[in-house]
Automatic annotation (TrEMBL):
Residues 99-138 form the 4Fe-4S His(Cys)3-ligated-type domain. PANTHER family: NADH-QUINONE OXIDOREDUCTASE SUBUNIT G, RESPIRATORY NITRATE REDUCTASE. Pfam families: Fer2_4, Fer4_NDSU1, Fer4_Nqo3, Molybdopterin, Molydop_binding, NADH-G_4Fe-4S_3. It comes from Saccharopolyspora ipomoeae. This is NADH-quinone oxidoreductase. CDD domains: fer2, MopB_CT_NDH-1_NuoG2-N7.
Length: 847
C-alpha cells in the first residue's frame, strides 16, 4: 500500500487501484477489502463479525462507512468488511462523516437492545470489544425501555465451551471458524428473525479439537470456557508469551497467570506458524504442573522404600550409584521426547562426559535402525531456510501425507493443509488404511455450492505403506511431480520396514521435498542436540574423527576422550539392561507404556542395578527408581523447542520463584558430583554452547536404502492391526483436565463391512482384539476400509495397545466377537479378566 500526495501525479501500480479514504489518496491491491485498506492506513473502523482469517460475512453491520463511486454517493452507508476497493472510490469513515458515525451508533444501539447487563460478572469484561466500542461509538443513553430478552444460561455446547445466548450479537465468527477453518460444522445459527441464536444439533455435539478458538475470537462473552469461567478478570492477570509444549507444531501461545498459578492459555499471533489458532490440547492442558501428585522434592530408595531427601543427599546418592554402574557394565540414557533443546543437549553431554557412553536415545516410542539412518541423513541440520515450512505446505501444488495423521499428530499442520485445500491451490493426498476425519476434511471441502474434492486417500493395508508408495496411482504420482510438491512423513513410518527408504526414493524420483513431522515437541530438538546413539550435537556423526575432535575442543576434553563407536538404540539399551549387560539407567520422564514393548522396559528397570529418574509426576519408572529427581515443567523454566520445520521457538519463564529446576541444571549438578563439568547450569548457558558448536559441515550418513515391505497376510480369524495415537488420549500432560477429556473421540475398533461379516459382529457390539500377550475389548464401528484390517487407538481409555497386546501398527492380531459378560470395554494382559471403568490418566512424563 502506498500513500500518494494529491500534488504528485503518478501512474497507479500494476494490480492496484487508487481511492480516497478520509481525504487521503491511497493505492491498494485489487480485491482488497475496504476495512483492510483503512486499518493499514491507521484508521480503525469498529467491527464485530470481521476477522482477517475468516471469509467476509457482513453480519454485524457495525463497520458502516459512506461510499461514493464515480462522483455519485451510494444511497446508504455500506459495510466496509464486505466491499472491495475500486478505482476512484471515495470513502468517509466515522472520523469524517456524520452519516457514517450516526449509522454506527444506530447499529450499536440495536445490538445492545437485548444485551444483558452482565459486565460485572462476564468473563469478557475488561477485554470485550463490545464493551469498548459501546463506549467509543455508542450513544450515552438507550431509547429502549422494554424488558430485555432472557434465556437459560449457560448452555453447554461441549464439555469445555459454554454459551450465554442473550450476549450473542450473531456475528457468526464461531460458525464460520467451525466450518471454514476447523471443518467441524457442529455449531450453527438456529431459528430465524428475532429468535435467531447460536446452537448445536441434538444428535451432533460440538466435538472438535479446535473449539477453544471460538471462545477467543468471540467479540462478546457469549462463548466462555468451562474451566476458566468466573475464575479471574483480565486486569488481575499477568500475561507471558510462550510456546506450546504438547506437539511439534511449535505454536505461539499467551499464558495468563496470577499468584503463581496459570489461569488460562490463549493462542499467540504468529503468521508464519500457527497464525492465530491453537488446538484444544495446547489451550486447556496445562494443569498437570499443579497436579496433587507432582514430585517437588528429591527421593531416594532406602530399605526398598522411596523417602524424601535433600538435594545434596539425593545428588550424592545418584552420583555414587551411577559412578559404580558406569565403571561396572555401563549406563544407558533415555531422555524421552518432552525436552527443550537445552535439556536434550544436557542429556547428550551428560551421557558422553559423565557416563562416557553413546548409549542414549530419546525416541520413547516405536523406532527402528532405518529411522535412525533417516534422521542422520535427511532430518538433522534442516532449517526453515533449507527445508519445508508451513508456507511451503500452503503454497504447494500437492502434499502427500504418509504414515501421518495430521489432525491427531500435528493439529496446526492439519489446519494449514485444510486452508491450502480450501483455497483451491493444493491437492492433499494420504497414504493410510482409512478415511479418518482429518483425511476427509483435507480432501473434501464443502463450499456454498456443495462439496469439492481436493485430494484423495490412497488406501493401503497397515504395514503396506511402502509398497503403496512405490505403486502410487498415476494422478497422485503426476501431482507430486509438480514444482514445490511436498512429501510429509510421520514418526509412525518407523514401524513399517522400508517405508522411510521408499519416501526418499519417491522424493528423488519425483522431485518432491520431504518433511518429517514427529508427534512430541522435543523430538526435533533432541536430534539436533545429539540425543541419539549415532549423533553428537550439531549433526556430527559419532564415528567421524574430525567431528569428535570439534566437540572435544569445545567441551575442553582431551583428544580421544569421547567414545568412538556408535551406541545402542532404545530397544537395545532396554534389552541389555534386562539381560544384565548394562548396570544402570537414567530416564527423563519416560512412560514404559509409550514404548513398543512395555514388558521389556519393566524387566529392564527391575534388572538394572541402579536407576535414576528425572520426572515431574510418579510413573511406572518411579516404582523402580533408586533416586528420583524432580524437574520443572515448561511454565517454570525458560528455553526453546525446535518445531518440525527446525524453527527455534524460544520462551521465557512464566511462573518464577518456585524453586523447580530444569533438567539441564539438575544434570549439571549431578555431573559435578561425578567429577565432571557440563557447564549447563542454565538453559542460556546450554544454548550458548550448542550455538558455539554450530552445525557439522562434513560428510553426512548415506540415505537408508531398505527394500519396501509388503503388508502381512492374515490367516483365519486374524486381521492386520492399524493404530496411531489420538490427540486427546491417556497422555500424562492431559491430567486434571476433565472438560478437555470430554471432547476426546470415541474409543472404538473400526473394521470394514466384509470383516465385520466374517467375524459375525455388527456396529456397536464389542470386539476382542487379541495377541499372545493379552487382549483389548472395544465397541465396533463399521467403515469403508480394507478388508481383514482392524483399527484401534494406540492409547485411549482402556485401549492401550502396547501394554495390552505388545504389538503395533502392521502386526497380526486375532479377532473375535464378545457376548454376554465374557469381556468388557478394556484390556486384559495374558488373556485374564479385563479392567472395567473409565480410564485414568497415565502417570508418566511424555504426552
Amino acid at each position: 500500500m502506498t500513500l500518494a500526495p494529491e500534488s504528485e501525479a503518478r501512474p497507479v501500480p500494476e494490480g492496484h487501484v487508487r481511492l480516497t479514504i478520509d481525504g487521503i489518496e491511497v493505492d491498494a491491491p485489487k480485491g482488497e477489502l475496504l476495512i483492510r485498506t483503512a486499518e493499514r492506513m491507521g484508521i480503525t473502523i469498529p467491527r464485530f463479525c470481521d476477522h482477517p482469517l475468516l471469509d467476509p460475512a457482513g453480519a454485524c453491520r457495525q463497520c458502516l462507512v459512506e461510499v461514493e463511486m464515480n462522483g455519485r454517493p451510494m444511497p446508504k452507508p455500506q459495510a466496509s468488511c464486505t466491499m472491495t476497493v475500486a478505482d476512484g472510490m471515495v470513502v468517509k469513515t466515522q472520523n469524517s462523516s456524520p452519516v457514517a458515525d450516526k449509522a454506527q451508533q444506530g447499529v450499536m444501539e440495536l445490538l445492545l437492545i437485548n444485551h444483558p447487563l452482565d459486565c460485572p460478572i462476564c468473563d469478557k469484561g475488561g477485554e470485550c470489544p463490545l464493551q469498548n466500542q459501546a463506549l467509543k461509538h455508542g450513544r450515552a443513553e438507550s431509547r429502549f425501555h422494554d424488558t430485555k430478552r432472557a434465556f437459560a444460561k449457560p448452555v453447554p455446547i461441549s464439555s469445555q465451551v459454554l454459551l450465554d445466548r442473550e450476549r450473542c450479537v450473531l456475528c457468526q465468527r464461531c460458525t464460520r471458524f467451525s466450518k471454514q477453518i476447523a471443518g467441524d460444522p457442529f455449531i450453527e445459527l438456529l431459528e430465524r428473525g428475532a429468535l435467531q441464536q447460536i446452537g448445536i444439533g441434538e444428535q451432533q455435539p460440538f466435538q472438535s479439537y479446535f473449539s477453544g478458538n471460538t471462545i477467543q475470537i468471540c467479540p462478546v462473552g457469549a462463548l466462555t470456557s468451562a474451566a476458566y469461567r468466573f475464575r479471574s478478570r483480565p486486569f488481575d492477570l499477568v500475561s507471558t508469551p510462550g510456546q506450546c509444549e504438547h506437539c511439534a507444531s511449535g505454536c505461539a501461545t499467551r499464558t495468563d497467570w496470577r499468584r503463581g498459578k496459570v489461569m488460562r492459555r490463549l493462542a499467540g499471533d504468529d503468521p508464519e506458524v500457527n497464525e492465530e489458532w491453537i488446538c484444544d490440547k495446547g489451550r486447556f492442558a496445562f494443569r498437570y504442573a499443579n497436579a496433587a501428585d507432582r514430585i517437588t522434592r528429591p527421593q531416594i530408595r532406602v530399605d526398598g522404600e522411596l523417602r524424601e531427601a535433600s538435594w545434596t543427599e539425593a545428588l550424592q546418592a545418584a552420583a555414587k550409584g551411577l559412578t559404580a554402574a558406569r565403571d561396572a557394565r555401563g549406563v544407558g540414557v533415555l531422555p524421552g521426547g518432552r525436552l527443550t533443546v537445552e535439556d536434550a543437549y544436557a542429556y547428550s553431554k551428560f551421557a558422553r562426559v559423565a557416563l562416557r557412553t553413546n548409549d542414549i536415545d530419546h525416541r520413547a516410542r516405536p523406532h527402528s535402525a532405518e529411522e535412525l539412518r533417516f534422521l542422520e541423513s535427511a532430518v538433522v541440520g534442516v532449517t526453515p531456510e533449507t527445508g519445508v515450512t508451513y508456507g511451503d505446505l500452503e503454497s504447494a501444488p500437492a502434499v502427500l501425507c504418509v504414515a501421518f495423521e495430521p489432525e491427531e499428530e500435528s493439529p496446526i499442520v492439519f489446519l494449514r493443509l485444510r486452508k491450502a485445500a480450501r483455497q483451491g491451490t493444493t491437492q492433499v493426498f494420504h497414504v493410510a488404511p482409512r478415511t479418518s476425519p482429518g483425511v476427509e476434511k483435507t480432501t473434501v471441502i464443502t463450499h456454498a455450492g456443495g462439496p469439492v474434492r481436493t485430494g484423495s486417500l490412497v488406501e493401503c493395508v497397515p504395514g503396506g505403506e511402502a509398497a503403496a508408495l512405490r505403486e502410487l496411482p498415476s494422478e497422485v504420482d503426476e501431482a507430486i511431480r509438480q514444482q514445490g510438491a511436498v512429501l510429509v512423513v510421520g514418526e509412525r513410518a518407523a514401524e513399517v520396514p522400508g517405508l522411510l527408504s521408499e519416501v526418499l526414493r519417491t522424493a528423488q524420483r519425483t522431485g518432491a521435498q520431504v518433511a518429517w513431522i514427529p508427534r512430541r515437541a522435543g523430538e526435533r530438538g533432541a536430534v539436533e542436540a545429539g540425543a541419539l546413539p549415532t549423533l553428537l550435537p550439531g549433526a556430527r556423526p559419532v564415528v567421524d574423527d574430525h567431528a569428535r575432535s570439534d566437540v572435544e575442543r569445545t567441551w575442553g576434553m582431551a583428544p580421544g576422550s569421547l567414545p568412538a563407536s556408535a551406541g545402542r538404540d532404545l530397544t537395545e539399551i532396554l534389552t541389555a539392561a534386562a539381560s544384565g549387560e548394562l548396570s544402570g539407567l537414567v530416564l527423563g520422564g519416560v512412560d514404559p507404556d509409550d514404548l513398543p514393548d512395555p514388558a521389556l522396559a519393566r524387566k529392564a528397570l527391575e534388572s538394572a542395578d541402579f536407576v535414576v529418574s528425572l520426572e515431574l509426576r510418579p510413573s511406572a519408572v518411579t516404582e523402580r527408581a533408586d533416586v528420583v529427581l524432580p524437574i520443572a515443567p515448561s511454565a517454570e523454566k525458560n528455553g526453546s523447542y525446535l518445531n518440525w520445520e527446525g524453527r527455534r521457538r524460544e520462551f521465557a519463564t512464566t511462573i518464577d520463584g518456585t524453586g523447580a529446576l530444569p533438567d539441564c541444571r539438575v544434570l549439571d549438578t549431578l555431573a559435578v558430583e561425578m567429577d565432571a563439568d557440563l557447564f549447563t547450569q542454565s538453559p542460556a548457558a546450554a544454548a550458548a554452547e550448542l550455538d558455539r558448536l554450530g552445525t557439522h559441515t562434513g560428510a553426512r550418513t548415506p540415505f537408508p536404502d531398505e527394500a519396501a515391505a509388503h503388508a502381512p497376510r492374515p490367516g483365519p480369524g486374524q486381521a492386520v492391526l492399524g493404530t496411531w495415537r489420538q490427540l486427546l488420549d491417556n497422555g500424562s500432560l492431559q491430567a486434571d483436565e476433565p472438560n478437555l477429556a470430554g471432547t476426546a473421540r470415541n474409543r472404538v475398533a473400526i473394521v470394514s463391512p466384509e470383516t465385520a461379516k466374517r467375524v459375525e459382529i455388527s456396529s456397536g457390539q464389542r470386539l476382542e482384539i487379541r495377541t499372545e500377550r493379552g487382549r483389548i475389548v472395544l465397541p465396533v464401528e463399521i467403515a469403508d476400509m480394507p478388508d481383514d484390517v482392524v483399527w484401534v487407538p494406540t492409547d485411549s481409555g482402556q485401549a492401550r495397545v502396547h501394554q495390552a497386546l505388545g504389538a503395533g501398527h502392521g502386526a497380526l492380531v486375532d479377532l473375535a466377537p464378545v457376548t454376554g459378560d465374557a469381556g468388557s470395554n478394556g484390556y486384559s494382559p495374558n488373556g485374564r479378566t479385563s479392567v472395567n471403568g473409565n480410564s485414568a490418566h497415565h502417570r508418566g512424563g511424555n504426552a
